[in-house]
Specification:
Layout (H helix, E strand, L loop, with lengths): L6 H26 L1 H66 L2 H5 L3 H24 L1
Length: 134
């Protein structure tokens, strides 16, 4: 013979069934709420896009850092070449100045006298022409 369930067991079974039904109804309501599902999908898409942007920014930063190092190395090498050429030019200029006999150049005043005479003649001609015109 089977025993009849006591009232406390029945109440507890009813409470459990109600809780299960409540959960099921909430799940069904969530599936039918298109607006909330769309908002959730949009939020996920935004989060995904933000993460991809962060990842891309990290990749760009790494590549920029590498490029900056390459440029710095090349600039350093170019600076060395320029310094070497400037030093070479300075040495060459010093040798030219050392080898030039400036005293002999100063003793030959004829080219300077010719240039000074030509300039004086041009000034006199310009002055005379302007004076005649008025």
């Amino acid at each position: 013979m089977s025993t009849a369930p006591n009232p406390d067991e029945l109440r507890s079974d009813i409470a459990a069934t109600r809780a299960e039904l409540g959960d099921t109804v909430e799940q069904l309501a969530a599936k039918t709420d298109v607006k909330a599902r769309a908002a959730s999908a949009a939020a996920e898409a935004v989060d995904s896009a933000k993460q991809k942007a962060r990842d891309a920014a990290a990749v760009v930063a790494d590549k920029a850092s590498g490029a900056a190092a390459v440029v710095a190395d090349k600039a350093s090498g170019a600076a060395g070449v320029v310094a070497d050429k400037a030093g070479s030019a300075a040495s060459s200029l010093r040798a030219t100045v050392r080898d030039t006999d400036f005293a002999a150049e100063a003793r030959r005043p004829l080219p300077w006298a010719v240039i000074a005479g030509a300039v004086a003649g041009i000034v006199v001609i310009v002055y005379a022409v302007r004076r005649r015109r008025g």
